[in-house]
Specification:
With 439 residues, this protein is an alpha+beta fold. It is built from 13 helices and 16 strands. The protein is globular and about 75 Å long.
Length: 439
């Protein structure tokens, strides 16, 4: 069993080079409301007439932080939308004499380090993301990178790190709140599964997202984070919160959802279901490997274990399985080495995190207090291995492209071992099929 912190993928040249190759180009055409672009141009002309010779700067704004690293849905500033006809978070428009220049944070595409490492702007995380050139074509104005307008600002995190370290250990009351959150979440999963036929019939991913969110608001404070509902090729997109696609009857459906109870403690659970109620052979093949990795990770959770042990346990199973399928370009040992990590192409995120008041709890802790720590009684964490075979990844056999599977449980570290709080949901493919049929 490997110990110690997982290697930083951003510091591995071979991995970075590998992640930059063999990706098809996604359709990055921006979506705008019909007529909005034309109206915005007229609005800018009216502004120029009202303020001749003046330069006006309007920011789109940013989604307010809900807690830690989760945010509410973004809604642009009204003046910004009125002048541009678009909704781009953190963008700024500068208008002078009716002419406009829009500055925006550029997305990270294949070949950019952020493509896979930046959860906010990396296309592997957020899906197809229009860039400045794409927006310029649609809006008919000059669009430039935000870096040309201003620099980033960093803040001191000393107090946040101290509180994060303290919050890693939950007391009895906190654990009870988390149990309630998990129980409500399992009930919410059942509500969603019952609505799959309606979603397949035409109501789509958003119907299922709304079903869970409604349940979370009725039986808790609301969803603990933006619920992820990904059908078919959307399932491999790690943070598919748009939920604007159909639910396809023969494809897998990845559900990553959590109820936040009134005390603001949240669950974080993921299961991947066959929308038809039955896994195909290829879908089962992927799910079985993820299940095997998941069970290896669960077995490595307990007091006295290095916090990173479950990460390494799950990753080794994944790497060996991918090698068996002929998907690794190097040996298993090289892939698992700190200078390799080639298997991470299909599992770019980590295997788990602390859970509590935030879905990614204690994230401001110092590295030695988080990844470098030993598990202790009272910690609550998630284990969430997965495999994400993107539809445009040319290294993957055609029959596996577009398949995304994640299994995530919430686990309490106890005095003698661990307790899976979300154990009411089955892990294996047969169990999931039976559970779906019983809802």
């Amino acid at each position: 069993m490997r110990e110690g912190k997982p290697p930083k993928l951003t510091e591995i040249p071979a991995f970075n080079a590998y992640m930059g190759t063999q990706w098809d180009t996604l359709d990055r055409t921006p979506t705008v409301v019909p007529g909005a672009v034309e109206a915005a141009a007229a609005h800018r002309a009216r502004l120029a007439a009202a303020l001749p010779g003046r330069t006006v700067v309007i920011a789109a704004g940013e989604a307010p932080i809900r807690s830690n690293d989760t945010a509410y849905d973004f809604r642009p500033d009204s003046d910004f939308y009125w002048l541009t006809g678009c909704a781009i978070e953190n963008a700024v428009v500068v208008v002078n004499s009716g002419d406009a220049v829009l500055y925006m944070p550029p997305p990270a595409y294949p070949g950019d380090l952020g493509f896979w490492s930046d959860a906010r702007y990396g296309e592997l995380w957020v899906g197809a993301a229009p860039g400045p050139e794409d927006w310029a074509r649609v809006l008919g104005i000059d669009v430039r990178p935000l870096s040309e307008l201003r620099d980033e600002v960093l803040a001191d995190q000393e107090v946040a790190r101290t509180l994060a370290s303290l919050r890693m250990y939950k007391d009895a009351w906190e654990i009870d709140q988390l149990r309630q959150a998990v129980d409500r979440t399992v009930e919410g999963f059942a509500e969603v599964v019952r609505e799959i036929p309606a979603a397949v019939a035409g109501r789509g991913e958003r119907w299922l997202q709304g079903t869970f969110d409604r349940y979370a608001r009725a039986y808790g404070n609301g969803p603990g984070y933006a619920s992820i509902v990904g059908s078919g090729k959307h399932a491999p997109t790690l943070h598919w919160v748009r939920c604007d696609g159909p639910v396809l009857p023969e494809e897998l459906l990845l559900l990553d959802m959590g109820v936040e109870v009134a005390s603001h403690y949240t669950a974080d659970v993921t299961r991947t279901f066959p929308a038809s109620g039955r896994f195909s052979a290829a879908q089962r093949q992927v799910h079985d490997l993820v299940e095997k990795a998941h069970r290896a990770g669960l077995a490595a959770v307990g007091p006295g274990h290095a916090f990173t042990e479950f990460h390494h346990a799950s990753m080794e199973v994944i790497a060996r399985g991918l090698d068996d399928w002929g998907l690794l370009p190097v040996s298993v040992d090289e892939a698992l080495s700190d200078t390799g990590q080639h298997h991470r192409r299909y599992l770019i995120c980590g295997i788990g995190h602390h859970l509590g008041l935030d879905v990614h709890d204690c994230a401001q802790a110092a590295p030695e207090a988080y990844q470098g720590a030993t598990m202790g009684e009272g910690m609550v964490l998630t284990v969430e291995p997965g495999l994400y075979f993107h539809a445009h990844d040319l290294t993957v056999p055609p029959e596996l492209r577009g398949i995304g599977v994640r299994i995530e449980d919430d686990i309490l570290v106890t005095r003698d071992g661990s307790e899976v709080l979300s154990r009411a949901l089955p892990l294996d493919a047969d169990g999931l099929e039976k559970w779906m049929a019983g809802q």
